[in-house]
Amino acid sequence: MEDLRFYPTQNSQAAIDRAVSIKAGSAELLYAYIDVEPVSFHRGFYTVDVRYFYKVTADAFVGAARPVEVCGLCVFDKRVILFGSEGSAKVFSSDLSVDGLDEQNLRKTNLPTAVVEVVDPIVLNMKLVDVCECHPCDCCLSEIPPCICSCFGSDLCFGGDGKRIYVTLGQFSIIRLERDSQLLMPVYDYCLPEKECACGGCGEEDPCEIFRHVKFPVNEFFPPNGPAPDNCRELKGCHC
């Protein structure tokens, strides 16, 4: 994910405008919004649109003073096309609904469900540029979910009339489609004992007689008997 626009907090933007250089920090994945839509021209295939929201930190160097930590948001959109088979049945469930008193869940179709497994990305590169410089990914977000904005503690700055930061991230992720399916599995009845244990006199056996049947643990007292080394006779005091 190359050259993502960095949307800093208002306090961080003030430090970025005065910064002469920037040092990469860390990145944390906050949330991934997933949307699944069927492909009209290819039945059984679906487009999975994923929008990743990252919290990125960096150190801004302002002259010879101590670096100032800046924090902001980066967003990346990814689209993949996966096979999820076909299905048009309506699915009803008697599971408890949180919004009502023992009400059924809403009706849904048996379309596949998209699952995204992601690890936190690695910050590969950061660069500090002026607004006057042309950049291919210089776009502004129209709307950010409130839950994402609350992770920064202050309002984000989307204008950036001064300097801006662009971030390059490396991330490993797995995107897959899941679908409920009916499988034929062998089923056996409950296994319940039909007779009582025949060893009724087990508790009356002589413990010494039981111990006599136990083999002596030779390996516990002596080293394991392995093959002798080739140069055994050359060792001092060895009479193999």
Written overview of the protein:
The protein has 240 residues and is mainly beta. It has a domain at 4-87 and 103-178. The chain is built from 4 helices and 11 strands. The chain has helices at 10-18, 146-149, 207-212, 218-221; strands at 4-5, 7-8, 21-38, 45-61, 68-83, 90-91, 108-109, 113-118, 122-130, 163-170, 173-178. Strands 2-5-4-3 form a 4-stranded antiparallel beta sheet. It has a 3-stranded antiparallel beta sheet with strand order 1-10-9, covered by helices on one side. The protein is flat, with a radius of gyration of 33 Å. It starts with a strand and ends in a 19-residue tail after the last helix. The mean pLDDT is 80.
Question: TL;DR of this structure?
Answer:
With 240 residues, the chain is mainly beta. It is built from four helices and eleven strands; from the N terminus they run E-E-H-E-E-E-E-E-E-E-H-E-E-H-H. The strands form four sheets. Strands 2-5-4-3 form a four-stranded antiparallel beta sheet.
Could you tell me how far the N terminus lies from the C terminus, measured between alpha carbons in angstroms? Answer: 68 Å
What is the spatial order of strands in the main beta sheet?
2-5-4-3
Note the main sheet. 4 strands, antiparallel
Average pLDDT over all residues: 80
Low-confidence stretches: none
Tell me the series of helices and strands, N- to C-terminal. Answer: EEHEEEEEEEHEEHH
Number of strands: 11
Strand content: 35-45%
Determine the structural class based on helices, strands and strand pairing. mainly beta
Radius of gyration: 33 Å
**Helical amount among residues, as a percent range?**
under 10%
- Principal-axis shape: flat
Tally the helices.
4
